[in-house]
Amino acid sequence: LEKCLMNAIKLLPDLLISQIAAGEVVERPASALKEMLENSVDAGAADITVQLVQGGIKLIRVMDNGTGISKEDIPLALARHATSKISTLEDLQQVVSLGFRGEALASIAAVSRLTLASRRAEQKHAWKVQAESGRLSPPEPVALASGTTVEMHDLYFNTPARRKFLKTEATEFSYCEETFKRIALSRPDIGFTLQHNGTVRRHLRAADPRSRIAAVLGDEFSQTSVLIDEQAADLRLWGSAALPAYSRASRDAQYFFVNGRFVRDKLITHALREAYRDVLHLDRYPAFVLFLEMKAESVDANVHPTKIEVRFRDPRALHQFVFHAIDKALATGQPASRGSVLAT
Ligand code: ADP
Ligand code: MG
Q1: What range(s) does the DNA mismatch repair protein S5 domain occupy (predicted)?
Q2: Confidence tier at 339 by pLDDT (50, 70, 90)
């Protein structure tokens, strides 16, 4: 400690800054996958394919048919604090994209070998760069349909201390699959494919929300849940909440989205728990897929680097609203008839 105190203060090298940031953003393969998928969604992709090797530790490849990135912008996409999604504080308060911090790709590139190939529709071919330990290769032309392919190879190859925290391939795959499910639930209008070690594990065609929920969570969930659709002032809550017959031994089927973003929130969890209180045994957990929609300025997603936590402007009103919506639906609780379609 004494030695540290005697040292002069100096700015950290760029790579180290990114590696420190990566500690928050890229905890494991699944967190890198989340960032890559969110970028594809933000790019307006209609179809997204994920290929994993060894639970994502060896390779995560995400291919999309979104807008693509121009040759000039590719180095910026990999630079820290560079984003196309916001440019002012007003934008930040109104943000509708999933990303806005401009640090995900830079963080991933700091702790892996990253390649990015991208083509905008108006370009004749795609451009590809490789990044390793903060160094970027010059763009070279490659063949690619318009859109973007990002590959993350060998996560933590240069940060062995972090590599030790990775779990088995099977466990890392299950985290990745969970991430994939969350994004797929939030965007039924997008087609998604998930492959692991060369095998297709999930293939989801673009569908209406109800069909997507059934495709991801299974028919049993859909057939034992009630449809929710409540509106009050600026708030809307819709989706499916399972009847007690489909309760779980863990929180594994709890999906709550705020303006399209999967969140874990104490207040929301509490409101739901309360709504299920009379019908559910204490050691059981409710299952639900719920979408809360509110004005962008009523919720702040800029609380945590991974954005899984948000802050609400009026938590009390929100708690009441969510509680009553679910309480009412469970009280009248007829399972949704097959084939009925959720309003979107
Ligand atoms: P953020 O998403 O917060 O802007 P990222 O580091 O994740 O930051 O990405 C940086 C930029 O790279 C994005 O703002 C976007 O312009 C571009 N980008 C990244 N991934 C894609 C993609 N799949 N398609 C198109 N553009 C992308
Ligand atoms: Mg991003």
Answers
A1: 213-331
A2: very low
